[in-house]
Amino acid sequence: MTSRRTLLKAAWGTVATGAVATPAWAADAGPIRIGLILPMTGQSASTGKQIDAAVKLWIAQNGDKVAGRKVEVILKDDAAVPDTTKRLAQELIVNDKVTVLAGFGITPCALSVAPLATQSKTPEVVMAAATSSITQASPFIVRSSFTLPQVTVAIADWAAKNKIKKVVTLVADYGPGFDAEKFFDSQFRLDGGQILDKLRTPLKSPDFAPVLQKVSDAKPDALFVFLPSGQGAAFMKQFAERGLDKSGIRLIATGDVTDDDQLNDMGDVALGVVNSHHYSAAHPSALNKKFVDAFQAANKFRPNFMAVGGYDGMRIIYKALEATKGEGGEKLLEAMKGQVFESPRGPVLIDAQTRDIVQDVYIRKVERVPAMGNQLYNVEFDVIKAVKDPGKSK
Ligand code: PHB
Q: Which residue has the higher pLDDT, 44 or 394?
């Protein structure tokens, strides 16, 4: 008996020693790879620049190891061309054996990868694109950004309660624009307002002159605008050049238009623009101040809402990998669902049913802030707590 026990002990000792050198469960435990697909060039390049910087900041602050394994981010530029996104995702899954796909600057790019995420059971973390339906395109999609219905209802409500009775809407002519147009329209009319006209501009190289002429002729109390991140400054310039800023027509928008990436360069035309969104670089929380300071020290530019989507997306990925000890697939997806945490934007939840983000939406006004270097910021003055994407229930 004793000798058997000794033998067993000895055998166990051998296995255990071997296990320390090369644990069986980690025999092929190389780095955990995250495939990050972003528009680093082209019209949406500011989104790529912002998210790339935020991912780097997350890693600098939290380390490049999770569950004892190295994390490797493989950055690919899709120039916001959906066919390219799809090809790059395929290569990342098949050749690089990534555990997670992340990024996705615009809606068509996020959607092009959905079937691949489903087939390969690879979680797809959407850090930027914001059309409501994206999370319904694959059960493997999780979103850390926002949705257009989520942020649009608040500004429609605010407008109706602030003596704005007649509105013209102007949106980019694709998914998120359709969401913004539809949800502004329904909320504003429900509140007793009237929509005089619905205008759309092409996603690529829009010329705002023809639509601004129509706005001028229609003479609404306000113009509501959604344009994707990167187009706000060009729009503001033309709005001012055509004298619309002095016409008595108020400008209201989603925060995509008064984007922190460009806001400070827009000049006085942006002052007083009331808008709704989920993130402002001026959000007055201790965590956000820390985030903005660290981001600006590393980059010399201000983080915008895309950066926060990237930063929080990395948080979701890291916490999920910790929970699964580096395992991917369905287990990783499950570990992403239901996460609750404080983001630089405020408290957030990844809704386990919809895999979409639940968050506070703020009403803000563009102001010059003396305490912040006299720069232009979206200053929050009201909040709607814990907003779920209204697009899911319609
Ligand atoms: C999108 O394409 O989904 C998108 C891009 C930029 C935004 C919002 C939505 O600011």
A: 44
Q: Return the closest-CA partner of residue 40 out of 8, 75, 90.
A: 75
How do 69-77 and 32-38 pair as beta strands? parallel
Predicted pLDDT of residue 209? 96
What count of Cα atoms within 13 Å lies in the side-chain half-sphere of residue 178?
8
Task: At 34, list the tokens.
Answer: 């995250």
Mean pLDDT (the chain) is: 94
Structure tokens at 41: 């060039």
Q: How far is residue 82 from each of residues 37, 41, 136, measured CA to CA in Å?
A: 11, 14, 18
User: Which residue type occupies 282?
Assistant: A
What does 59-125 look like in DSSP terms, one character per residue?
HHHH-SEETTEEEEEEEEE-TT-HHHHHHHHHHHHHTS--SEEEE--SHHHHHHHHHHHHHHT--EE
Query: What is residue 255's three-state secondary structure?
Result: coil
Amino acid of residue 321? L
CA distance 368 to 267: 10
pLDDT of residue 27: 42
User: Which residue among 85, 256, 257, 259 is best mutated to probe the pocket of ligand 1, counting the most ligand atoms within 8 A of its Cβ?
Assistant: 256
- Local confidence band at 28 (pLDDT 50, 70, 90 cut-offs): low
Cα-trace Rg, the chain: 23
pLDDT band at 392 (very low <50, low <70, confident <90, very high): confident
Banded model confidence at residue 393, pLDDT cuts 50, 70, 90: low
In the prediction, which pLDDT does 235 show?
A: 98
Binding site membership of 176 for ligand 1 (Cβ less than 6 Å): yes
Where are the alpha helices (H) located in the chain, listed in sequence order?
Answer: 2-21, 45-62, 82-94, 107-120, 148-160, 175-190, 209-218, 232-241, 263-266, 286-299, 305-324, 329-336
Q: What are the tokens at 340? A: 């609750």
Q: Is the confidence at residue 18, as pLDDT, over 80?
A: no
C-beta separation of 118 from 186 below 8 A: no
* Mean pLDDT in residue range 49-54: 98
Select from 37, 38, 47, 106 the residue to mutate for testing ligand 1; criterion: most ligand atoms less than 8 Å from CB.
Answer: 106
Q: Name the closest-CA residue to atom 7, ligand 1.
A: 228
The closest alpha carbon to 335, from 137, 100, 81, 57, belongs to 100
